[in-house]
Amino acid sequence: MTTQTDLPTTAEAELLAKVPTGLFIGGEWRQTEKTIDVFDPSTGDVLASIADASAADATAALDAAVAVQDEWAATAPRTRSNILRKAFDLMQERRDEFALLMTLEMGKPLAESNGEVTYGGEFLRWFSEEAVRITGRYGTNPEGTGRMIVSQHPVGPCYLITPWNFPLAMATRKIAPALAAGCTVIIKPASLTPLTTLYFAKLLEEAGVPAGVVNVLTTSSSGAVTEPLLDDPRLRKLSFTGSTPVGQKLIQQSAKNVLRTSMELGGNAPFVVFDDADLDAAVDGALAAKFRNIGQACTAANRFIVHASIADEFARRVTDRVKGFTLGRGTEEGVTIGPLIDDRAVKKASELVEDAVAKGATLLTGGKAVDREGTFYEPTVITDVQQGSKILREEIFGPVLAIVPFTDEADAVRLANDTEYGLVSYVFTQDLARGQRMIDKLQTGMMGLNVGVISNAAAPFGGVKQSGIGREGGLEGIHEYLSTKYTMTPAS
Ligand code: NAP
């Protein structure tokens, strides 16, 4: 079913009028001569025109971050904690606004945007709690001749680059631990969805974040703005979330100053369903792992590796459910599938499905772009996908569920690991021993065992292989922004 697009409502216009449009540098909002238009992907309408930073603006932002780094690092952990907690509270008060803003600029249905406000907000609360738990070690060396002190210190000014698919959570997942650790930051959101970060920076200002501690650069020239920052020895850390090719380039650029880097990159998640699985749970998990965020998540299940004896039944059940989805503008009541982010995304989904079908896959539902305004692609299910199909190698980043049958456990493990990525894997089985074997054998940073959604602020999020370096969230997250210092003193 397809619903029609509404004209922007008064509530939308009022919200957009509240969102700052400038660069945020040293506590001031600065306009630029050039601007970038931000579009609603469900209509193609311009939502706002925002500042377009140059390389000189980037250096000004670093100047601002460097100027207050020592002072911010010296604030009491309780002060930093209280500011983050205040930001969490403000986020709850404004949750409807943040949800609507994300739906407008990114397209996901409002219910999902609300879920992201909950998830993204939790990083503020979690790291407000972690800020006061930065500890070290003290002990005697084995020889008994000295005392060893191990302490933790903020790494220094950080540059944070975020993608467009989770406009709020990707920002809070980096800013909150950095601030908790005592680091100042410059954040560069994706030019496709910068409004949420700008509105969030305003919230942080109100929560009491001092001028210069958080700076925001929006730009249409990411490479040109990033280069001077990575070249500047005053910058001490890069945290990037985005595609693997851009991450690889940034790792190379970070070599010059031997920057600390955290890399949250692409995925190609396997979703393995064994013949002993609870099929109802597997179907629910599959729909959540695939269609959340319209398939545009690094954690989205990319390859459904299903035991041959249940593959037809699994395919039938997911297809029935997918046919019941409602496609439309994310602000509309009952919509479950919004638009893809842009034309390129629609083209990519179309090409991957066409390639798979040409190589022998069967199309069960969907399979084409939707003929309406905005960048919509039909929710799609294909089965019997053949090895050699591009869809098994590349991140789909769209609402396409691709099924590959397997016959034995070793085969499932081999298929699941047959990728250069290793972010997340999903496994459905009721056999505990088999579940344990899969934990041991799958090359993955995270695993959903009989669940289709795994993200949580209290968990270490991150990948192995070409999916990244480092972890965000959990007890590990703050350590990405701390460096360890060891001091030796004589035994008294
Ligand atoms: P992308 O094209 O790599 O862009 C990510 C960010 O990098 C954007 O802010 C982009 O800005 C910026 N960028 C692009 N080229 C750059 C350059 N040369 N120098 C500096 N910055 C540059 O990725 P995307 O399409 O936005 O996001 C989708 C990808 O992110 C997928 O691969 C997905 O798996 C991954 N992702 C990973 C995680 C994770 O936690 N592992 C989470 C979410 C998404 P502009 O677009 O404005 O140029």
UniProtKB/TrEMBL annotation:
Entries under CDD domains matching the protein: ALDH_F5_SSADH_GabD (cd07103)
UniProt KW Disulfide bond keyword: no
Catalytic residues (positions): E264
Family annotation (InterPro entries): Ald_DH/histidinol_DH (IPR016161), Ald_DH_C (IPR016163), Ald_DH_CS_GLU (IPR029510), Ald_DH_N (IPR016162), Aldehyde_DH_dom (IPR015590), Aldehyde_DH_Superfamily (IPR050740)
Domain of life per record: Bacteria
Domain spans labelled Aldehyde dehydrogenase: 30-486
Gene Ontology BP annotations: gamma-aminobutyric acid catabolic process
GO molecular function, one term: succinate-semialdehyde dehydrogenase (NAD+) activity
Protein name (database record): Succinate-semialdehyde dehydrogenase / glutarate-semialdehyde dehydrogenase
Organism annotation: Mycetocola miduiensis
Lineage, uppermost ranks: Bacteria, Bacillati, Actinomycetota, Actinomycetes, Micrococcales
